[in-house]
Amino acid sequence: xxxxxxxxxxxxxxxxxxxxxxxxxxxxxxxxxxxxxxxxxxxxxxxxxxxxxxxxxxxxxxxxxxxxxxxxxxxxxxxxxxxxxxxxxxxxxxx
Length: 95
Hints:
It is built from three helices and no strands. By secondary structure, it is mainly α. It has one domain. The N and C termini lie far apart (64 Å).
């Protein structure tokens, strides 16, 4: 079983006339999605779980995590620019 099946494929739609193969694909997708969400949630530290919304869909969860870290990267870049722009040359020595 591919644990990343839910990341690669969209959830199949099931109707009353769906074949057993399509129903099996849907069950495979749901199992893969559930395992992926559980795995990702175990890797997020408890202190950071409040920053990422809870999702039942692994694609939505990954997008939320990605958006959170893009914001953090921008804040880090801004902080570093502020620190470097406030630095002053304190000593000049010959080589």
